[in-house]
Design brief:
Strand content: 35-45%
Number of helices: 1
Largest sheet: 5 strands, mixed
Shape: globular
Radius of gyration: 15 Å
Order of helices and strands: EEEEEEEEEEHEEEE
Number of strands: 14
Number of domains: 1
Length: about 190
Amino acid sequence: MRFSRLASVMFVVGVSGAATIIACGSSGGKSSPDAKTFSDAPGSGGSGSGSGSGSGSLQGLGQKCAFGSATSGCPASASDCVAVAAGSGASNGWCTPHCDDAAAGMTNGSAQFTSLTPPPSTTACPAAFSGSASQAVCGLILASTPTGALQPNTSYTGITLGCVVSCQTLACPSSMTCNTQKLCIPN
């Protein structure tokens, strides 16, 4: 199944070293984390230089795609084209694989997942990422039931997660720009 839709999300930077990624089904303006970041390759993936020293032309995760188009241009290794809310529109789209499908979980009192069953893949995001200057992480909510912004102490099913490229601690590849929420977005 190919998801080609706007993942209306907010991203909040965690201070614990790993990015805390929030993904909401609506643009509710929420500023507290909705989803736990599932880091596939903590502390790996590049030099961390501020120069954007990674690949100029990504293939797979992070590859720029035609968001909203019937033919997004994404490869089989990262077949979904997603974008995030950016002001009144959307960011440039990027290709992502799924890193968890048909998961279930419950949020805590802060509307954050503490665990998912089955747990997210620890290999899907890094395997689909050809860049070397950033960290591929799992945590972008592409689908869930119920839909919308995550609510405290609520059970969710049908959770599908996608990957993002984080610039929390490492520079973005040169074909991407780090936004204010520490997410690499295609130029």
